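Table S4 entry, Glycosyltransferase 2-like domain-containing protein.
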Amino acid sequence: MSNMKMDSDTEMLAIVIPFYKAKFFDATLKSLSAQTDKRFKVYIGDDSSPDDITKMLDNYREHFCFEYKRFEENLGKKALPRQWERCVKMTAGEEWIVLLGDDDVLGDGVVAAFYKNISLKANAINSIRYASCTIDENGVQTSKVFFNPTIESAIDFFFRKQRSSLSEYIFKVSKINQVGFKNFELGWCSDILAVLEFSDFGAVYSINEALVNVRISSQSISGNQDNHKLKFKAAFRFLYYLIANKKAYFSDFQQKKILEEMSKVYLNQKKNLFFFAKVSTQYWIRGLFREYCIFILSFFKIVFKTK
């Protein structure tokens, strides 16, 4: 399903929505309709949702250009990043992509700010980030507005531990196609890794004059309290991936910090012997025997405390 025709010469930006739940989707569509700059095209990839949104989409047919496709296989429950990639493949040659959550809301100047700033960035920039805040189920702001340095190393961003979500970024399509998304449980940490890898562990350009509202609700992965075990598993796999496969980008001190964080994540679960072996191996190959002893003591303290 498609609508409206746009001049492809001016259309650099695709807004890709991996869709599944309809509860907040009208607010998402309203935020697209409210954009002051309409030089974008929306691609909606329906992940075999039980909700029929065709009538809802009809209300926006004259407001912005979009394509809608329903996939018969539900990928999100199996591997959410594979659903993201499937939706990215719907695009038609745009240079930049926003992967927008089906419950998140763009400020009305997001697209305009993109075109205003795109000529100011260095050619080496592959990742762009907006200011952001969180909202609840009623659309009420629940956090401060998070601003970012105009130019920041992705590694500095990672260690700064600033909250982050996929919706507040714009990535170059060429980098998404080249690198792809790593498939961690629930897509948890897959977005943070995307920022690191799509930027080549280099600079991220920030636009602080426009705002992305990220919804945290019981229906969102971030707000759901029943999936914490999968989140811990994803976080561990993410940190291990960095320290085992991307160590060339990190100093010895930074690798040590990643290993310490990985140990903390493991100690929150402590039942996976395979993960225990991974932590132990990383301590030993780095010769961090004192730190390993501290980890082992923490492990046994937790074990005996729970018995």
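The first helix runs from residue 25 to 33.
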